[in-house]
């Protein structure tokens, strides 16, 4: 029996009024972000204080739009040109509009009938994404984030390469994955979830350019074999999170081939460069991989979280999970591309295809080319400014839009000084930058995610760093 609350909750007129109000609010927000003036990118508040604010604030009955506006005002602004921090895209409005619609439609998409259009569109997106790799015999799907995508690909690797059928029989022989010591922590986590333990992740040291030392591969492989560990996969970074530097995928691919290993490329960040006329060379060797992942919500401008897992050989994309679920699909053994829950970790999942394809529908495929070219060029320009500045030091020549650098001074502990600088920048709030621990110390880290972060913003950030440093020295 329906109740007044339920009537109100599903009232289309109320939805329209709320939707319109939120749209107006976001329109105002995005307009302001184009020329933010004194509006900060981040207004940092201590976590306990933030929690207390919401605890005190939330029970009040207030209009939905007022609640949402308060959320907006108390959050980091990813569309602010001063947002140069972690690798999250300022969502392209078209992607957000698609997500908004799909959130209302709520097509769960585990089985075909629960999202027919989404199933077909997801197949199309993955075909498009595979195109530059030349993987005509391949397949793929979308999943919720790079972390889950890496785990999914590595489970496929285990299925393909392990001497024993771990899925059915459990793990009896020790297995291992080889990966850069600079890999994102989620690869380590995936290995542990797979039950590989400490010895199951062979972390290969990197050279002074933060690329896997390819000469270390053979000895580490031999060492594992001598310990009775079966190495199943080689993982390459394209690029690594900390430095934005790409591993030598050609060499890693050859090594994997020589030892019959699964070759996986974690290109959560840099996979988007496959669609760039200027930077696709960075992915040279990726076509030799067995699997690759690409995050839409990093360098392709989509709303979070949207990741493609692509396989060179279509059958591998069906091999990861073997689950009987008679309440969902009738043909348990049949691949059935359109019943997506058979292949993804998720059962119900969001309509991620719309996050990509709303962008394409509005702006065409070349949007991705323009975005990558613009953002990577911003990385180069900023690096150049750092090199030219007498008080700054570049950690390494950037290949992407990730730039690591530090303020240099002969007067004080550099790590401590740069930590204090970062803290001061966050407290100031006009720019949001992050930090990274590299071999020789603590560095400031920027990732240019916003195509509207200009040369003038870069100069202003550098001036701000200098002025904070002057006060701290
Ligand atoms: C190289 C790499 N792999 C995986 C991930 C994890 O991706 P997600 O945050 O989408 O789970 C990241 C995130 O920064 C990354 O940089």
From TrEMBL:
It comes from the Bacteria. The keyword Membrane does not apply. One of its GO terms (biological process) is amino acid metabolic process. The keyword Lyase applies. One of its GO terms (molecular function) is carboxy-lyase activity. InterPro entries: Aromatic_deC, PyrdxlP-dep_de-COase, PyrdxlP-dep_Trfase, PyrdxlP-dep_Trfase_major. It comes from Aureitalea marina. GO terms for cellular component: cytoplasm. Belongs to the group II decarboxylase family. This is Pyridoxal-dependent decarboxylase. PANTHER family: CYSTEINE SULFINIC ACID DECARBOXYLASE, GLUTAMATE DECARBOXYLASE-RELATED. Keywords: Decarboxylase, Lyase, Pyridoxal phosphate. Its cofactor is pyridoxal 5'-phosphate. Pfam families: Pyridoxal_deC. The modification N6-(pyridoxal phosphate)lysine is found at residue 298.
């Amino acid at each position: 029996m329906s109740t007044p609350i339920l009537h109100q909750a599903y009232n289309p007129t109320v939805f329209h009024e709320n939707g319109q109000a939120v749209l107006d609010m976001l329109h105002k927000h995005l307009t302001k972000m184009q020329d933010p003036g004194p509006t900060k990118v981040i207004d940092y508040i201590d976590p306990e204080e933030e929690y207390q604010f919401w605890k005190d604030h939330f029970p009040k009955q207030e209009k939905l739009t007022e609640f949402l506006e308060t959320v907006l005002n108390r959050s980091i602004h990813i569309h602010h040109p001063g947002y140069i921090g972690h690798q999250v895209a300022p969502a392209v409005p078209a992607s957000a509009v698609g997500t908004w619609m799909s959130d209302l439609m709520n097509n769960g998409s585990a089985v075909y009938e629960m999202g027919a259009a989404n199933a077909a569109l997801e197949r199309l997106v993955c075909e498009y994404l595979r195109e530059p790799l030349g993987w005509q015999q391949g397949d793929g799907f979308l999943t919720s984030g790079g972390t889950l995508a890496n785990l999914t690909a590595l489970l496929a690797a285990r299925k393909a390469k392990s001497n024993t059928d771990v899925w059915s029989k459990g793990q009896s022989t020790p297995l291992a994955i080889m990966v850069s010591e600079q890999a994102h922590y989620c690869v380590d986590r995936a290995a542990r979830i797979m039950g590989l333990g400490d010895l199951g992740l062979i972390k290969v040291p990197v050279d002074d350019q933060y690329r896997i030392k390819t000469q270390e591969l053979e000895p580490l492989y031999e060492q594992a074999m001598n310990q009775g560990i079966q190495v199943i996969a080689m993982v390459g970074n394209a690029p690594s999170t900390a430095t934005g530097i790409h591993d030598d995928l050609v060499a890693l691919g050859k090594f994997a081939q020589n030892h019959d290993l699964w070759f996986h490329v974690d290109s959560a960040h840099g996979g988007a460069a496959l669609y760039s006329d200027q930077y696709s060379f960075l992915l040279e060797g990726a076509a030799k991989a067995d699997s690759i992942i690409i995050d839409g919500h990093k360098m392709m401008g989509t709303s979070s979280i949207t990741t493609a897992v692509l396989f060179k050989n279509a059958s591998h994309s069906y091999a990861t999970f073997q689950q009987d679920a008679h309440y969902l699909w009738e043909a348990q053994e049949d691949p059935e591309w359109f019943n997506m829950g058979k292949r993804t970790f998720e059962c119900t999942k969001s309509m991620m295809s719309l996050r990509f394809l709303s962008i394409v529908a509005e702006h065409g495929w070349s949007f991705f080319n323009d975005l990558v070219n613009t953002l990577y060029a911003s990385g180069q320009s900023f690096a150049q400014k750092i090199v030219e500045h007498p008080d700054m030091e570049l950690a390494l020549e950037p290949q992407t839009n990730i730039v690591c650098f530090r303020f240099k001074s002969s007067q004080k502990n550099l790590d401590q000084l740069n930590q204090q600088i970062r803290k001061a920048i966050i407290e100031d709030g006009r720019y949001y930058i992050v930090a990274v621990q590299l071999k020789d110390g603590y560095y400031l880290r920027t990732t240019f995610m916003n195509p509207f972060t200009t040369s003038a913003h870069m100069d202003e950030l550098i001036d701000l760093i200098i002025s904070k440093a002057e006060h701290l020295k």
